[in-house]
Amino acid sequence: MMKNESAELTKIPALEPAIKDSPSEKVASVFPTALTNAAFVDNLTFALHQHGFSNDTTLVATSLCCDEVNRDLEKDLKHAYGDHFSMGGLAGFPFGGVTAFCAMAHHIPTNGNCIVLFGPHVGVDSDGVVGKVNRRGRLESGACCGSATAAADYVHRVCRGDCAEHDSPVEALDAQQTFVGNILLPYGTRLAEAADPAVELPLALYDAQKDLMARIVARGTSAVGENVQIALVGGIQVNTPAGTPDYFVPMTFDLLDHKGEKLADLMDTLFLVRDNENELTWIIALVMYGLVIFYLL
Ligand SMILES: [Zn+2]
């Protein structure tokens, strides 16, 4: 057999290149209202400034998952408002509860306000896979949010009858994860029937956390001083690989008074601010272009 014929026989057909979404493209397709963290924080601070929230007298409280990939958003907020009060635990649930909220309320500067930011998180890895993230120093992407993924697996097994529902914990050993799983149980059918369970999981977690946070705020407002305004901000953090910005999907942006009564729904304002900034960018660009033309002539 000729050498060339042998090469022909053993030639491996070229694989069709897989068509994958970039992380940003995937985020835009599954969470179309997502803002980059930077845009979200800029728009948030701008919008709240119109309602009397100054950088020096605003205290930020967060309820975000323990996972280290979630700290970037808090760092961005720190540039505006300083260190935050942490209420959150596994999967982003506000496990600090009423006690944490009341303690935070007592730390608000005189004549100041507070921002309560809560929500679950979900990764989108370099292949555009939702529910995974590329972590520093690790070859393969892994589950993100890991706590939520484990809880969803528990819910799936309970719904199938493969395991019994866990009793509420009586010791702290792994109490938070047990609560995450049991709080997610009512969403079992919704998750099982979802077109994309990996996208539905943070949405279900968000609903559960919004309900819990509303009950905490309702119980905790007795500790909030008069004239204090509470910006209640909820949404989903989206963690992406290095080199791609992380995102926040705003889903609640309410302004509350010190009793927890809603003063305004600011969601629209949040997105209008972004549009206004784009318009301003265009105006500056046009002015610069005009100046260049003027000097050239
Ligand atoms: Zn997590």
Description:
The chain is α/β, with parallel strands linked by helices and 297 residues long. It has a domain at 17-143 and 197-269. It is built from ten helices and ten strands. Strands 1, 2, 3, 4, 5, 8, 9 and 10 form an eight-stranded mixed beta sheet that branches. The protein has a two-stranded antiparallel ribbon with strand order 6-7. Helix 3 runs parallel beside helix 4 (71-81), helix 5 (97-107) crosses helix 9 and helix 6 (146-160) crosses helix 7 (175-184).
The arrangement of helices and strands along the chain is HHEHEHEHEEEEHHHHEEEH
Helical residue percent band = 40-55%
Cα-atom Rg, whole angstroms?
23 Å
Biggest pleated sheet = 8 strands, mixed
Bound molecules: zinc ion
Stretches with pLDDT under 50, minimum 5 residues? 1-10
Total strands: the figure is 10
**What general form does the structure show?**
globular
Count of separate DSSP helical elements? 10
Distance between the termini: 75 Å
**Secondary-structure class:** alpha/beta
Q: Which range does the strand content fall in?
A: 15-25%
- The whole-number mean of residue pLDDT values reads 90
